[in-house]
Amino acid sequence: MxxxxxxxxxxxxARRGDExxxxxxxxxxxxxxxxxxxxxxxxxxxxxQFGTNWAGFSKYAGNIIGQTLAMEGMFAFFLESAMxxxxxxxxxxxxPRNHFLATVGLAVGSWLSGYFILVTNAFMQHPVGYTxxxxxxxxxxxxxRFF
Length: 147
What we know:
single chain
């Protein structure tokens, strides 16, 4: 997450003709790509653990934490994964302007992903904004306290 805004800064400077920033941006883009792959490899099993290892918790609180995990997967992860491939392999194909915009999209996707994961973890550590339904599971009652 911290590297994404730095990549945007380097790509912005590279658009203005700074070759040192272009080299640094290319180098750290590849580092970002490697860490992204490790995040995917560790994140996918974590999703399955909610159903296997923490099935009772998922049944109890799944109506709430499932929403943020789904938003992380559908909005943030898809944006981030599409943009990381465009940034890593598309510099010559996209041109400077579109490559910079892809880097901005990568940064937005990275930060959105982190935000949704932090919201989920925050609810797991300190649940607020919920009510207990008749079946004993949690339901979201106050969206403003949740996010």
